[in-house]
Design brief:
Blueprint lengths: L4 H7 L22 E3 L2 E3 L6 E2 L3 H12 L2 E3 H8 L4 H11 L8 E3 L4 H11 L2
Antiparallel strand pairs: 1-2, 2-3, 4-5
């Protein structure tokens, strides 16, 4: 599937650096979540989740395509530890044939459910 959004984003000069990075809290939508004790935690509303990063990966795939550079994944998810990053990406973005690249598995139903809760 060809991602036509990429051309639009490039024309508008929208880059990864212009976005608010990190995993956003789905409850309060204000705070970035922090990874600690094998869960995502929100300091603002006390929300916790083990898989909140999956929505962030799906958003990235819609905006920039389903190929994810591992270096970008650190910034995107706000994770510093490579072992944590690899565990988080294991199911949602498995390794590709190219070193340092991941392939995000598309899950549009996850995005529909997420945005359905956000914009009720």
């Amino acid at each position: 599937m060809r991602n036509t959004n990429r051309h639009w984003l490039e024309r508008q000069k929208i880059t990864l650096d212009s976005l608010r990075l990190g995993v956003t809290c789905p409850t309060c939508r204000n705070c970035p979540l922090v990874w600690q004790e094998r869960k995502w935690h929100c300091d603002g509303c006390e929300f916790t989740s083990r898989d909140a990063h999956e929505v962030t990966l799906q958003e990235y795939a819609v905006l920039f395509g389903n190929k994810l550079d591992t270096r970008v994944a650190y910034q995107l998810l706000g994770v510093k530890d490579k072992y944590v990053l690899y565990r988080l990406l294991e199911k949602s973005a498995p390794k590709s044939n190219v070193r340092g690249k991941r392939q995000i598995i598309e899950n549009r139903d996850l995005l529909r459910a997420y945005f359905g809760r956000v914009y009720k």
